[in-house]
Amino acid sequence: MNGSEDEQQLVYTVLVTGANSGLGFSTCCRLIDEFLHSRPQTQSLHLLVTTRSTSKNKDTQTRLHAHLQKTLLKADKGTPGISKVLASRIKISGEQVDLCNLRSVKELGKRLLDRGDRLDVLICNAGIGGWKGLNWPSAIWAILTDWRHACTYPTYKLGFVGAVAAQEGDETAPDQQLGEVFTANVFGHYILAHELSPLMKGGGSKEPGRIIWISSIEAYAHAFDAEDVQALKSDAAYESSKRLTDLLVLTSELPSTKMSTTAFLQEADKQQKPKMFLAHPGVCATSIADLPLVLWYAMLLAQYIARWLGSPWHPVSSYLGAVSSVWLSLAPFSSLSTQELTEGKAKWASSTDVFGNERVVRTEVGGWGWGGKVGEKADGKMRLSANRWRGQEDVTKESREEFEVLGQRVWRDMEKLRETWEDKLEA
Q: What's the number of domains the chain is made of?
């Protein structure tokens, strides 16, 4: 986005799902801080947060206003009286949505479409882990013998198998059920993004909107089975959902998926469809894993030790972890597009050095690499191979082709599933 476009587009609207805690709340705080420092005075931010309940929404807005006040006080110390000017540039509002309930998702989409307000960024952050505990012997052995790797790529989590999110009607009927983790992490957002895409079209003086999907460093290729997209037979539903997210976003601009993405983003003549970006926060201490207080602090210490041992993937703080998604939200659109066009579509990660200094880098993805190009090396300034997943192999022509074929398949399957459920909801 250049300066003249900034001035023409006075209100910049960002919707963040799952904003009441952890990474979602920190993303909102960071959006406020960086928007005030990076965008021109002529532009204001409308931060639209979603939670599952009215009480959580009110509480989230209250805490975000409190954070805004702290930011304004700091600004006043540098430039007395500036807070009044800055405060007028931030608007915070909220909506309720249950991403596991497709009716709720459709209703939110309809409310926002009826208002007709422009949406510039949709951050698909909300999600659940679906874990029931740890394999303690495996966890203890892995951490004691290979601390840094075990704290980055845990394979000792125990997930629920077959957990479902029942939809309307006969909740016991298989055709009224969806995989719970799959729906919360992927399909609910997939439906929401489809519904809101008309509000994110580009054309004229408007740039295309941005759909930012939050993935994970734990998006293992081996966790995903194309025959079980909803991971109903898997004890790694979370990891499967994140691998599915990677496949969808990284192949979203390939010619082979155009038929599916055109329908999904409701592409129209003379309008540019929204652009999808992929981010992950590294390893952060959040509430997605429900742990007793003692274990939570033990996890926190383990993560700091992993960072001190040289892992670049441990921001630990969710505020630091939000740097990649906020950068994708506010960086000039033209520079992001140019970078992905020339160097390939990326999975952008939040990374820190041993002292916690943050940066945004490309993450290596199995079968795709750093940009979907065979022969890439970790020699670019935004690429790292440090603390690499030990099962990772260099991208070959064959693995790159397999990745694209799998991406084409999951796009086709997801579109069929969307159409099926939209027919059910309309019936």
A: 1
Q: Is the pLDDT of residue 9 over 70?
A: no
Give dist(CA 217, CA 228) in Å, integer: 21
Given 197, 215, 318, 324, the catalytic residue = 215
pLDDT at 263: 94
- What type of residue sits at position 335? S
Catalytic residue, from 157, 242, 273, 345: name it: 242
Active site residue 297: no
- Does the predicted model carry a pTM greater than 0.90? yes
Q: Among this protein's residues, is 215 annotated catalytic?
A: yes
Give burial (CB, 10 Å; 0-12/13-18/19+) of 328: buried
Q: Which of 234, 238, 324, 350 is catalytic?
A: 238
Domain that holds residue 35: 3-426
pLDDT at 288: 62
Percentage, residues of the chain above pLDDT 90 = 76
Q: What is the pLDDT of residues 237-272, one digit of tens each?
A: 999 999 999 999 999 999 999 999 999 999 876 778
216 is catalytic: no
Report how far residue 274's alpha carbon sits from residue 256's, in angstroms, rounded to the nearest whole number. 18
The domain spanning residue 363 has which CATH number? Answer: 3.40.50.720
